[in-house]
Amino acid sequence: MPTFEYAPAPESRSIVDIQPSYGLYIGGEMVEPIDGTRFKTVNPATEEVLSEVVAAGPQDVDRAVDAARSAYDGTWSRLSGRDRGKYLYRLARLVQERSRELAVLESIDNGKPIRESRDVDVPLVAAHFFYYAGWADKLDYAGFGPDPRALGVAAQVIPWNFPLLMLAWKIAPALACGNTVVLKPAETTPLTALAFADICQQADLPPGVVNILTGAGDTGRALVEHPGVDKVAFTGSTEVGRQIARSVAGTRKKVTLELGGKAANVVFDDAPLDQAIEGIVNGIFFNQGHVCCAGSRLLVQESVADELLAGLKRRLTTLRLGDPLDKNTDIGAINSAEQLAKIRLLSEVGETEGAERWSPPCELPGRGFWFPPTVFTGVSQSHRIAREEIFGPVLSVLTFRTPAEAVEKANNTPYGLSAGVWTEKGSRILWMAQRLRAGVVWANTFNRFDPTSPFGGYKESGYGREGGRHGLEGYLDV
Ligand code: NDP
After folding, report:
1. What is the DSSP letter of 205?
2. pLDDT tens digits, 148-174
3. From the CA of 235, how far away is ligand 1's center (Å)?
4. How confident is the model over 230-282, as pLDDT tens digits?
5. I need a labelling partner for 60 at 20 to 30 A (CA). Which of 116, 315, 335, 427 fits?
6. pTM surpassing 0.90?
7. Any idea what DSSP says for residue 150?
8. Which CATH code of 3.40.50.2300, 3.40.605.10, 3.30.70.20, 3.20.20.70 fits the domain covering 24-259+458-475?
9. Does the beta carbon of 392 lie inside 6 Å of ligand 1?
10. For 206-233, what is each residue's pLDDT tens digit?
11. Which CATH class, in words, describes the domain spanning 264-443?
């Protein structure tokens, strides 16, 4: 039971204006599809239909790629870096000005708590545009030789877990480097990308520099396979990442893939346990665990395991699950029925394989897609819940005795996106960071993001880096 009861504090949704139906954003205008069909998009917290959007067809993809090509040849590649930077600053400022609207819309469309969309997603979106705006006229000094060139038209496909933030991660560096883009948001979360189309119009961005095609996997496939694109940037599952890598092999297209993860969050016996508990909660229950770099495997040193787990369970009983628009909510809705089915299935497998399942007392709303925060103890490395990305609020707990064992277990995964280390000793942090095969290693914190910091994976977590100076490389002909 929560320690305190709070009165509901819902954020008003009157600030957003969701239209009953949307077209596609091509060549600077919202247009009707040529061969696309329509589908409904729902609020995952209530299953209420929010709007009808287009699943763009092959001819729509042709048209968007043509628009991006004309914009590249006709305007964007001719602008100076300074002028491109001005547009990016303008986009950043408009995101800030409309931040409340964007946060509410993101929570309605995705199911994530408003506290996160308001305090994490949207501020980071603006920060990304500001950061890459600053690079636009300094590419000569970015370490890729004098006068590095843009690639041309970028095809960008993003997932549903951070819809607007992933859009920013893709669009901001692409535009800063002088490319034009065609972006496909995920099927279940198209609305903030469509709001961003409106922001592009408001910013007077030259037509065709940004094009947004809503749709499902088929639209994504048609886009990445289109012969007119020069660059493919994808964030999503490892399985689709593999298909994309196969489909672009042998073409001129440059590719960056940011795929799944199964990060270890390693807690040593000298760690400040209360802080570590906050970090574990943030690591796996932030955004309902729909985070590629989530700390989904807790590795705790055996001598403090009981104490840590007791504290963690106490802390989890205070989390509030429910209305994503309520400012007190910690855990929102699962993004879709499919994802909920996957989380349920893997959790059942965890029990069948012999791990012990625990959730705090927690009432789930009657409608919508919900899953309680869940902890599995007694997990061994061979269990599926220790190997596969569940992408939900489910933590698998393993123990270790020595630092060497911690490293071995942490690295025993096909993935390598992130890791966390909790210890009082700076020397141990460095020792661990040198041995963990993960693109990001957080020390005494978790899930911290900053546009200046490169992010990306090893092994099956993908290749290429996004963010920071490194994030420019994927969009330059170097
Ligand atoms: P996908 O990888 O299928 O989706 C990511 C994006 O790719 C979406 O926009 C999707 O469209 C699109 N897409 C799907 N198929 C293709 C294709 N053949 N060619 C080009 N684009 C395509 O992830 P799902 O949403 O299906 O989630 C499945 C699992 O993937 C999750 O349970 C989770 O484990 C993992 N995942 C990992 C993410 C990460 O950041 N590491 C992010 C999202 C998911 P559409 O939305 O219509 O499917």
Report:
1. P
2. 999 999 999 999 999 999 999 999 999
3. 7
4. 999 999 999 999 999 999 999 999 999 999 999 999 999 999 999 999 999 99
5. 335
6. yes
7. B
8. 3.40.605.10
9. no
10. 999 999 999 999 999 999 999 999 999 9
11. alpha beta
Cα dist from 269 to 101, 260, 319, 428, 477, whole Å: 44, 29, 25, 12, 48
If you measure from the C-alpha of residue 189 to the centroid of ligand 1, how many angstroms do you get, rounded to a whole number? 12
CA gap 361, 218 in Å, rounded: 41
Strand ranges, E, within 263-417: 264-267, 297-301, 356-358, 374-377, 394-400
- pLDDT confidence band for 360 (50 / 70 / 90): very high
Percent of the chain with pLDDT over 70: 99
Ligand 1 pocket, residue 163 CB under 6 Å: no
Query: Active site residue: 177, 200, 292, 293, which one?
Result: 292
Specify whether the CB–CB gap between 438 and 266 falls below 8 A.
no
Delimit the domains of the chain by residue range: 24-259+458-475, 264-443
Q: Is 50 exposed, middle or buried (0-12, 13-18, 19+ CB in 10 A)?
A: buried
Length of the chain counted residue by residue: 478
